[in-house]
Design goal:
By secondary structure, the chain is an alpha/beta fold. Helix content is 38%, strand content 16%. The protein binds 1,3-dihydroxyacetonephosphate.
């Protein structure tokens, strides 16, 4: 009997990779899909921690990452031995970890969150009177502390893609555009960028914000996240002017090198089990 192969792709992969997938989504959607997929083989066109998460949630499936080198700076900047010591130093705290972390990192955590459910889960823990430490994303943690008045001690790693967004380039880029303009941003971006955003949320959250946009029809929407999602936004709302936030003058070109390792040939080979 032939094996049932399911292909998942994150929004940050290139359009041609998304077109090869059974499901395209944000981290939370893809994790849930992987958990419930009645699949013998899951081809995960994303990065390593996503494939690891799929394996944790669906251990009987064989999970294939098309390029074994597709890591994430949040993982490579986190030394797990140091993390363990940090956790031990905060023994009376609940350790909440962002899903962009290795399996070893997750094993040292009490809760795993994604950019979609992090606000609700931490609010729940604070409502129960818990003290919380947050890792590994310093920018996301700083935003949560700022937004909700928390005082969570933070681990210090960043997404090398989102961390490039900055206020100076944003101010210049937005000033150069006439008319109504909006900024939407992923919470892995630096705090000064998030503070001026009209909406902060996961990739799916930003996509939904764009889908339901009903303000000035000629507005320009700046998007502070990896450029893959602009494909989905363009498909959903071809009537809108949607551009990536600049990282320096003239450069709207911020890509995740690891997500872009998922090329057509590698995904096809993974689907064929080679
Ligand atoms: P979401 O898919 O949760 O928006 O996160 C994006 C991301 O950080 C992928 O590495």
């Amino acid at each position: 009997m032939s094996k049932r192969v399911v292909t998942l792709a994150h929004y940050y992969t290139a359009p041609e990779i998304q077109q090869m997938a059974d499901k395209v989504g944000d981290s939370l959607e893809l994790s849930l899909y992987a958990r419930d997929a009645n699949a013998d083989v899951i081809v995960f066109a994303g990065v390593r921690f996503m494939a690891e998460t799929a394996k944790i949630l669906n251990p009987q499936a064989e999970v294939i990452l098309p390029d074994a080198g597709s890591t994430c700076s949040l993982v490579t900047q986190t030394d797990v031995k140091r993390l363990k010591a940090w956790r031990e130093k905060h023994a009376d705290y609940v350790h909440v970890s962002y899903i962009n972390s290795s399996a070893e990192h997750k094993a040292l955590s009490d809760w795993i969150v994604t950019s979609r459910n992090v606000d609700d889960i931490i609010a729940h823990l604070y409502a129960e009177g818990k003290k919380v430490i947050f890792s590994p994303d310093r920018n996301m943690g700083a935003y949560l502390n700022y937004q909700y008045g928390y005082d969570m001690p933070l681990w210090s790693a960043v997404c090398e893609v989102h961390d490039k967004f900055n206020e100076t380039a944003l101010n210049e880029g937005m000033a150069a555009v006439e008319g109504a303009k909006y900024l939407i941003a992923h919470p892995e971006s630096p705090l000064p960028v998030l503070k001026r955003a009209d909406y902060v949320g996961s990739t799916s959250g930003m996509l939904n914000w764009v889908k339901s946009f009903q303000r000035e029809p000629d507005a320009t929407i700046f998007v502070a996240t990896e450029d893959g999602i602009l494909y989905n936004m363009g498909l959903a709302r071809p009537d809108l002017k949607i551009v990536q936030a600049p990282i320096y003058a003239g450069c709207q070109c911020n890509q995740c090198p690891y997500m872009k390792m998922n090329n057509v040939e590698r995904v096809q080979r993974a689907q064929a089990g080679e």
